[in-house]
Amino acid sequence: MDNCIFCKIATKDIPAQTIYEDDEMLCFKDIRPAAPVHLLLIPKVHFDSLAHATAEHQTLLGKMMLKVPQIAHEAGLTDGFKTLINTGKGGGQEVFHLHIHIMGTPA
Ligand code: 5GP
Ligand code: ZN
C-alpha cells in the first residue's frame, strides 16, 4: 500500500534488519527497541490492523502465530517472551499495517 512504511520494508524499499522471511511474512528488529530483543512480525499483504482482518486472513494469521515461538526461540528467548498487537489509535497503534511485537530478554 502506498505510503505504508511496513509495506516498504516488506518490498525492501526501506531497509530493516530482517530476522525471518518467507512468502507471506517478514520479521525484523524494531527500530526503537523496548526490550533487549524487540522484533516485529508482519504479513507481506497489507491490512491496517487486527480490527481490519477478515476471514481471508485466517490462515495467514494462524501461520504467523505459530511462527512466533520459533522466531522467539531462534532469537534467544528460550525462557519465554511477550507478544503484543496494538490495535487502533486508542490501542496505541502507530503504524497501520498489522504487526505482532515479540519482546523479551535472552535467557
Ligand atoms: P505500534 O505502536 O504501531 O504497535 O508499533 C510500531 C512499532 O514500529 C514501534 O515499536 C516503532 O518503534 C516501530 N517502527 C516504526 N517505524 C519503523 C521503521 O521504519 N523501522 C523499524 N524497524 N521499526 C519501526
Ligand atoms: Zn502496509
Automatic annotation (TrEMBL):
Active-site residue list: H99 (tele-amp-histidine intermediate)
Xref: InterPro entries: Histidine_triad_CS (IPR019808), Histidine_triad_HIT (IPR001310), HIT-like (IPR011146), HIT-like_sf (IPR036265)
PROSITE patterns: HIT_1, HIT_2
HIT domain boundaries: 5-107
Locus of motif Histidine triad motif: 97-101
A family per Pfam: DcpS_C
CDD domains in alphabetical order: PKCI_related
GO MF annotation, one: catalytic activity
Protein name (database record): Histidine triad domain protein
Highest taxon of the lineage: Bacteria
